[in-house]
Design brief:
5 strands; YaeB-like fold; 98 residues; alpha+beta
């Protein structure tokens, strides 16, 4: 599966501390290779179709969505409350909630 990064992800990543940057990037490859990777379980965000979240480290979260062409689009990263704030900013296309 290919990976893509939303501008929001890149901006949030640049704001992270070095150890959180490292943990975020270390989570991308396993999720890209296997969305059921044991130590990085993806779960649907409640009430927000098409958006998934993963815990990269303790309080560090990544959000993503699945796009056409077998692409995993990473939306944002950061501390729990920050990363999961305003998930409605993305509206899933029909059939994208997988």
């Amino acid at each position: 599966m290919a990976a893509d990064f939303a501008r929001r992800f890149v901006h949030a990543y640049e704001e992270l501390q070095p150890q959180d940057r490292r943990a975020s990037l270390e989570a991308v490859d396993p999720l890209q290779a296997d969305r059921n990777y044991p130590s990085l379980p993806l779960k649907k965000m409640e009430g927000v179709p098409g958006i998934w979240e993963a815990r990269a480290f303790r309080d560090l979260r990544l959000t993503c969505r699945f796009a056409a062409g077998n692409v995993l689009v990473f939306r944002t990263c950061g501390r729990h409350d920050t990363a999961l704030k305003h998930p409605q900013a993305y509206t899933a296309p029909k059939g994208a909630d997988r």
